[in-house]
Amino acid sequence: MNVRRITKRDFDRIVEVIDHWWGGPISTFAHPIFFYELGDEALVIEQGSEMIGFLLGFVVPRVDPTGVNPSDIARTGYVHLVGIHPDYRRRGVGRQLYDRFVEECRAARCVRMKAITTPGNEGSIRFHVALGWNMQDVEDYAGPGRRRIVFTKPL
Q1: What distance in Å separates the CA atoms of residue 70 and residue 92, rounded to the nearest whole number?
Q2: Beta carbons of 14 and 30 less than 8 angstroms apart
Q3: Reduced to 3 states, what is the DSSP secondary structure of residue 58?
Q4: What is the CATH number of domain 2-112?
Q5: Which of 24, 47, 49, 60 is the most exposed place for a label (fewest CB within 10 A)?
Q6: Where are the beta strands (DSSP E) in the chain?
Q7: Out of 21-30, 35-44, 53-62, which region has the weakest mean confidence (pLDDT)?
Q8: String of b and e for 108-135 (b: at least 16 CB within 10 Å)?
Q9: What's the mean pLDDT in 134-141?
Q10: Taking the domains of the chain in order of start, what are their residue ranges?
Q11: Considering only CA atoms, which of 59, 49, 52 is closest in space to residue 87?
C-alpha cells in the first residue's frame, strides 16, 4: 500500500465514491475547501493503482489569545473525514493513513491531534480508542442539542 498526497483527480474520485463507502449520504462533507484551501496535508492510500482510502485533514494554527507571546503558536492536526473502501476495512488502511498524518503533523510542529464524530458512530469510536486517542462526550458541541464525541491526542 502506498500513502501519498491528494491530487485533484483523487478528490474527484472521493466525491464519486464517498456515499457508497460510507453507506449513506455524506458527500457534502467532502467540500472542495478540503482540497483547494486545506489540502496540503490531505492523503490517499492506494493498493496498486486503486485508491482504497483517504484522509481529509489539515493543520490548524492557534496563536496565544492573550497576546503575551505572539510567536507562541500551538498547532493542532485536525482529521476532518476519513473513508476506507469497504473491501479493505480492518486491514490496517486507516492506521496507515493516521500514522502518516500524525508524522506530517509532528513535522509541522503540532502539539495535539483532534477529530470529531457523532454519538453512535461505533466504528469511529473503537478505531480512535484503539489508536490511543482520548475521548470526550460533549453536549451541545455542534450547537444546541447536537452532542459530539471529541477525540484528542497529545503529540
Answers
A1: 40
A2: yes
A3: strand
A4: 3.40.630.30
A5: 49
A6: 2-5, 43-47, 50-63, 73-84, 110-117, 134-138, 148-154
A7: 21-30
A8: eebebbbbbbeeeeeebbebbeebebee
A9: 96
A10: 2-112
A11: 52
